[in-house]
Amino acid sequence: MKRRSFVSTLAVAGSLLFPSLATAQITPDADEVSEEDGAIVVTGLRGVDRTVAESPVPIDVFSSDDLEAVSYTDTNDVLKTLVPSYTLSRQPISDGSSFIRPATLRGMPTDKTLVLVNSKRRHRAALVTIGGSGTQGPDIATIPTIALKSVQVLRDGAAAQYGSDAIAGVINFLLKDASDGISLEAEAGQFYEGDGFEYRFAGNIGLPLGDNGFVNLSAEYYDADSTNRAEQYCEPWFCVDEYAAQPGNEEFAAAVEGIDTVQPWGRPSLEAVRTFVNAGYTLSDAVELYGFGSYSWSTGTGNFFYRYPGNGTIEPIRREDGSVWTPLEFFPGGFTPSFTGEISDYSMVGGVRGDLSDMLSYDLSARYGRNEISYTLSNTINPSLGPDSPTSFKPGDLINDEFQLQADFVMPFDVGLAGDLNFGFGATYFEEGYELVEGEPLSYAAGPYSSADPWGFCTDDGMATPSGAAIPGLDCSDGDDPVYTVVGVGSNGFPGYSPDFSGTYDRHSYALYGDLSADVTENLFLQGALRYEDYSDFGTELIYKVAGRYEFIDGFAVRGSYGTGFRAPTPGQQGTTNVSTRLPNGFPVATGLFPAGSAVAQALGATPLRPEKSTNYTLGLTGDLGSFTYSIDYYRIELQDRLNAISTISVVDDCDTATDGIQDDCLGFRGNLIDAGVVGAESIGGVFYFTNAFDTVTQGVDIVGSYTTMWSAGRTSVTAAVNYNKSKFDGPVDGLFNDEDQYDFVNFDPKWRGVFTVSHDAGPVGLVVRANYFGKSTNSDGNNAPLVYQTYGSEIMFDVEGSYSLTDLITLSVGARNIFDNYPDKADFEYCCGRVYNSGSTVDWMGGYYYARIRARF
After folding, report:
1. Which residues form the TonB-dependent receptor plug domain (predicted)?
2. What is the pTM of this model?
3. Which pLDDT does position 607 carry in this prediction?
């Protein structure tokens, strides 16, 4: 481990000194692109702009009008609505994933999709999701929609052009670049259930920068209350209402009286401020300066699992004076830890671009991005401290920062083909850093009650010592006497980062690439790319891609691509550690995630992480029939050494009488954790780590069609986008996943997803109707072997919005998402603790939502 290098510090200082060096226009103005030409795209190409219809790979382009027609305010949700193969789920009681939600594109986790802003890589968030794919990708929610001119979604592997992460595709956010005009928005709404009220204010302004430049500023303020779709906690091991009704529990009953649910399931509360600046200045016909940057701050509060009397946390213990104490003296009705994440995110990009000659164009740039998450826990305790425990903790921070230098060049050659042969080439240098900042000492401290009989009241043979003999009620011969109680270490719900599990993980890399593309004939376009990358922690990799498009007749073409890709595990995925409450078998237990390269994980059988490698295939048809355009694209992604968390290994005290159900050599032996120096090992019930020892095959089809017509009643547009996606293991995985996890990996998410939109404009009146379709899915439960299954039916949810232009400047809109208040099927099993719906599902389970919005443009 080492600290951030001097070159990063220098780059940050330079970015701060020259924030106004800003970006030249990445694409032509919308007014410069005719309807016949279609939307111009740059994503996935080097040195030549093409229309969407002419692209050799599938690309979706959404204008600012398209983005505004979606009622969501979170850019993640906007993409989910517009791109069927982009899926997103709500993540309650999921640590930082409750605030930074992981998504998928074409069945691949977020970190296998490269995110760009103005065609420059966007930095990652500091969050590494706990469990599953261990995703660490950019926080797309930090990009306000009011700052966007358009979004380009490349649904194809492009690692050979852009480097690590672009296995599933590329999302390119292009910022507004107007030098005049003001846009203002205000919106408010809430769910039919009467909760989750939210409001938003946003604005954008374009300003001239001298005679040859622009500065475009965007800002957004957003505030949302939490939601709750739970029922009262009542499980076989503890039922709130039944316990409250028992004699002697009157104080508990009084504490929970009037509380509908001691453990909410829903969306956390959120407050956010998001800003962007984009600017550019033309020095001459051959030189442009550009720069853009962002700052985002947000804070959200969710919750963990409810701690009930006798759950291992709320247990009686004997204090130093021999009296019996229980956390119920702090929390008479038990407690549900409250978890707050404060996220700060900023980025700066600057560069110069232009033409050195008629035969050589260049783009030189530098960028820096940083994301920091600061956690706070309240309404909880460090059980091992007993009555001396505080009830609020700072368990530590997560920080991810990146610095990159990049040089891109394009040379066109006339070699006698139908068009120029464009040679794009370049190089990049990239530094990444990830830091786990130590928490407050009491958040990880191992107090006296982390071991039995801390005050020496009993002897090893069950007799009272002289000090113990004076304690009324003490029975050293009774193993259930509170003197022997052992409770957990650290702030309950999320123990703080101790010095042993804190530190900085850095790496650097550099890359060289070349890209050739040309219209070989009037009907044939070909492209090829080659990229070499060298990582300080993973060595070298050479990847490539070829793509082409052939137009048989006007309005009908075939396109396809073949390429290889890779993704280097991030420093965060290599270094993150976490101990939290999870449900490995439907029952909440303290579960520890440890870095694959750590002594702890090594004792459990882990091996150091390796890069993931992919082979991508696509084959598609595109065409148009008058006003109707369509595309059909098949894809196949073969992913080797896929990174994922193993199934949780149960921690056992006696290997002779228990096994973990996965490994046959008792790697879950508690002694292994103790020998590895894990603080609180005595109270951890499960352990797991990330590995990349298995392969998958993902394949599917994207179908997109659109039709627009003008008639006497106005202009009507109809679009339909459908995705089918299926993944499977490519080889045995019995040593990594139990039967339940294997089944759910393949079957948990719906395989079919569709979005169907009709929009109509008639003078000052506008109407948008959208249907969101989710296909069937099946989930398994392995609590009682053999597995049992539940099939969730298909769902259709309708969104409706109507708008009216009060003047040429002001438009009022009202609408509803899920207007018929449709909910997915309730869960029949597995989902403990008051959970009614499959909370990890990509099918929304919040119910209907209504809103009103006003927009003004000057």
Report:
1. 52-170
2. 0.90
3. 85
